[in-house]
Write a structure and sequence with these properties.
mainly alpha; about 70% helix; single chain
């Protein structure tokens, strides 16, 4: 039995791995995607398994912390990597990698916020 769609429009930040909110099994697809964003031990906690919105909240905190970590690595790379013996070409490559990672993590953070909001709206409608 298919459930009716409550929303067919999602933002550009909506992750492709997650079904459209309101579609059949969309919460399960959201939880599966969110579990990939948190350490494995958190993904198996019963409260997160039963309440995907709580998993989403934790994933949001986790991704925000990752952004802070990568920004710190980026900001300190020029000062710290030479002391570790890294060559200039390696330092430049590492800086580009960190800069790209910040952008990727910011996109993931927006996606997590979109999924979190959809899960919260779904819970409020129950």
């Amino acid at each position: 039995m298919n459930m009716p769609l409550t929303s067919t429009r999602t933002s550009a930040d909506w992750p492709c791995q997650v079904k459209t909110p309101g579609s059949y099994d969309w919460e399960r697809s959201a939880a599966r995607w969110l579990r990939e964003l948190v350490p494995a031990r958190y993904a198996s906690y019963p409260v997160f398994l039963r309440h995907p919105v709580l998993l989403a909240r934790h994933a949001q905190i986790q991704v925000e912390q990752e952004i802070r970590t990568v920004r710190t690595a980026l900001q300190t790379a020029r000062a710290e990597l030479p002391r570790l013996g890294a060559q200039e070409s390696v330092i430049e490559h590492t800086i580009r990698l960190y800069a790209a990672e910040v952008l990727q993590l910011q996109h993931i953070a927006r996606s997590v916020r979109a999924v979190t909001q959809a899960l919260a709206d779904h819970n409020a409608a129950r």
